[in-house]
Structures are given as C-alpha cells and as structure tokens.
Amino acid sequence: MHYSVILNPTASNGHAKEVWGSIKQQFEQAGVDFDLQTTKKAADAEYFTRRLCQQRRASNTTVVVVGGDGTLHDVLNGLEKAARSLQKELLPLAYIPTSNLSRFAQAYGISLDPNKALQQVLGASQVEKVIVGHCNDAIKNQHGYFLNSIGIGFDAALLSHSRKAKRRKKFRWRRFSFLSHALSVIYDQQPFQLMVTQQQHRFLYPKAYIVLIANHPYLDCGVKLSSANNLTQPSLELLTVERRGWPITFWQLLQLYRGKLGQSRFANHLTANNLHLTTTSLEFSQTDGEDQGNRFIDITVDVTTYPFRELH
C-alpha cells in the first residue's frame, strides 16, 4: 500500500507541522511507502488531488490528510472533482487530525491523538464507505461535498464576525468568545424567511435565525446537535430555530452553547436524505466551518458516500 500524504503545515496554529515530524519518523521506521505534498494555499489541495488521480490507482493508494477538518474538506472535494473529470475511481481517504476540535474525527471514531490515528490508518484492512453530505447551489451553479455541516444565519454570521474581529484566527466556542460575539451578532441580525421542501412537503419558517444542516451530531469542540444522526445513516438532520422574543432568544443561545439546543422544544427537527432550502434575503452561510459570505440561498442537499480507509 502506498500512502500519499497531503499536509497543511499551518493547520491547528502550526501544530500540524510538529505532528508530521512524528508521523514521518514512524513511517520511516515501519518501512512504509509514502510521498508528501505540502499545501501553501487553498488552491494547492485541488492541484495535488488532480495529480494524484492522474498518477495513482485506488487499489493500492490511500490519500492521508494531516491537518484539520478544513483541509480534509478541501482534499475530499478535490479528489471527487478530479475523479469525475478524469473518469477515474475515487482514491480512498484516511485522516490524521491535528486538533482535538475535529468534529469529523469525533463523529467517525478517529482518535484525536495523531499517533493513535496513524495506527488506525496503518491497521485498516479494508475500505469503508462513509456518508457525506452533497450540496448543489442553484444560484452559483456549483456543487460540492461537506463532512460536518452547513449553517445559515446566526452561526455563520457569528463565524464571520469573530474571524474578522480576530483577523481570521480560528474561532473557538469558549464561553467569553461565544457570548461577546453572539450578543453583537444577534443584536444586528434580523430573522429571515426560510422555505424547506422535502419531496412533496413544504415547510415555511417566517422568522428563522438559526439553520443547521448536519451530517452528524457534533457542532464543534464536542458540542452535540442531537444524538439522532450518525455517519452510518444515509440522512441529514435539519435544525431550524425561530426568533420568539428576547428572553427566549437568550435561552436558545444558552442552550446552543451548552449543546442542548437540539433537545429544546423551541427547535424544529427534520431528518431526510434530500432537502431544498431557499431564503428571500441575503444571509450568511458556512460550510464545514468555512465562511461562504452573505448571499441568497437556493440549495439542494442530499447524501452520498466516500471511501475511507480507517480502523475504528
């Protein structure tokens, strides 16, 4: 087995570079056949994955991502795009997270200890198809895949606000950071109209302000959206929360921070494998923690699978 490593050395505030030093040493000691590609900018992942698809075969290659969930997101989307355009088989993925905040690793059972995650990769005897989300944007005429979630409204606005305030440093859901940014965002944010279509059914939320489409229960830092969905089920969970006045809004935000909003009676749940969402106003959105800007929403989300080589 050949392992093609894609490393993002700046992931986890530079910790990924230190992690790779240890992994490389273990690779060499075990006589593992590997090569290394190091990203320096966002477009590098797509370039490397296309080259790998051209040169390697899925039967004897595993692409190992060393970095955070954002790096894994970019590599998976790059591999899928390259395989589709080249009409090649998807190259299996493996993941060594360099941060203990990896939501995908927590959900999938990948160790947050990089050395243990490496042993999971090397000990994997077969490829497993893992459920991932797929999103088609009708306005941009683009499609892509997400590992964790898509957020519309409050959480995306919070992400955008906090990163601008911190000069785009990674936002952490710590109590002081959450409260200080949340109060500023919620004061300026207006509720919006959301239309959701599921097969023949339509649902209208006239005062939506928190909208989350989740591939698994984890939001961030171990916070759970709900316990209903996991990566073995071919479905997505939509959670929609509407504004109901300031006292209840503050309670909703507290429950969101505590990871209990999913169990709140003020939260609307919908589980499906295909959903169409539209808004009538410009709203902030995020995909796997990456800011997508302020825009009209007209997206269709469904589920698909991607091959992973990981023992858990």
Integer-rounded radius of gyration: 20 Å
Number of helices: 8
Question: Number of DSSP strands?
Answer: 15
> Helix content range of the residues, please?
25-40%
The main β sheet shows up as:
11 strands, antiparallel
- Approximately how much beta-strand content do the residues carry? 25-35%
- What is the domain total for the residues? 2
Task: Specify the overall morphology.
Answer: globular
Average of per-residue pLDDT values: 88
CATH class of the largest domain: Mainly Beta
Terminal CA distance reads: 19 Å
* Structure classification: alpha+beta
Summarize the helix and strand pattern as letters. EHEHEHEHHEEEHHEEEHEEEEE
CATH topology title of the largest domain: Tumour Suppressor Smad4
CATH architecture of the largest domain: Sandwich
Question: Spans with pLDDT under 50 lasting ≥5 residues?
Answer: 167-171
